[in-house]
Amino acid sequence: MAEPGSGRRHATQRRPRAAVRIGLTALALGVVIVAAGLAFSMLARRPAPVPGTVITLPAGEADYLAGLKALASGDTTQATALLTSAAGSGSAAAKAKLAELAKPVSRGSTVTTDTYTRAVADIGTLLPTAASGYRLAQVETSTASAIVSAEPSDRTVRLTIRRVEISVFDMRTVSGATKWVAGLSKAFPKDAGGVRVADLAGRFGTDGSHLACVSFSRGRFSFEVVVTVVRGAAAAQKTAAVKLAEQVAATHISQ
Fold first, then answer.
1. 74: number of CA atoms within 13 Å, CB side?
2. Could you report the per-residue pLDDT of 228-253, keeping only the tens digit for each?
């Protein structure tokens, strides 16, 4: 038989133990809350990344400014090439300046509007009818392009060059033609670089195997000369490709 008051003693002993457990639980919870608060505070104080301070000119701005300088010096050929490049890069100011230069001038002036800024009835007429050292086939035309194939007439040349294709495309705008030329590196990514084609600036590239290409534009028209090489590196025919491109009348500003 339990002694009187034993139940009260057991209850009294359990109360401190429960209190201790509750206290420990509260202490642990408090530590978690404090740690979370510190972590959040540290993240909030973390400095934001400092943006770069490199200043770059808008697309085409350098060529546009150089074009204005060339225009002021009287070098209209260089100015047109630079402004065309700037327009192709997206410079609205360069596009406006090119449009201004293309406007008809008052009677009595010696400057004439570049006919290559207007559409032509037969785009095939923009391709050469003869090329020194080559036999040209018949020109094939479509609504907005034309192409003529040719083979070397010299037997020695035929040992390295099988044939060439000279093409013209109506891109409708000066900027469209310029962008088309700039895109040459996508089709002919090897040995890429700028070249001078008579009075115009152009681009050269190869497919790294047997095709070499020269591309240039004048006004709304873009031109391309592709040389198929049968012996040796395609890049070795750069000079030949440029000379063929110079057979196109558009490469001579006076024409």
1. 0
2. 999 999 999 999 999 999 999 999 98
**Residue 249 burial by Cβ neighbours in a 10 Å radius (0-12, 13-18, 19+):** middle
Rounded average pLDDT over 109-123: 70
Q: Which of 233, 174, 225, 229 is nearest to 204 (CA)?
A: 225
pTM for the model: 0.57
pLDDT in tens, 44-67: 444 454 454 444 556 677 887 777
- Yes or no: say if 166 and 244 are a contact pair by the CB < 8 Å rule: yes
Q: How far apart are CA 160 and CA 152, in angstroms?
A: 10
* Assigned token pair, 126: 């923009």
Q: Which residue has the tokens 């490709």?
A: 241
Q: From 253, 149, 124, 146, select the one nearest 196 (Cα to Cα).
A: 253
Nearest-angstrom CA–CA distance, 238 and 161: 12
d(CA 131, CA 136): 7
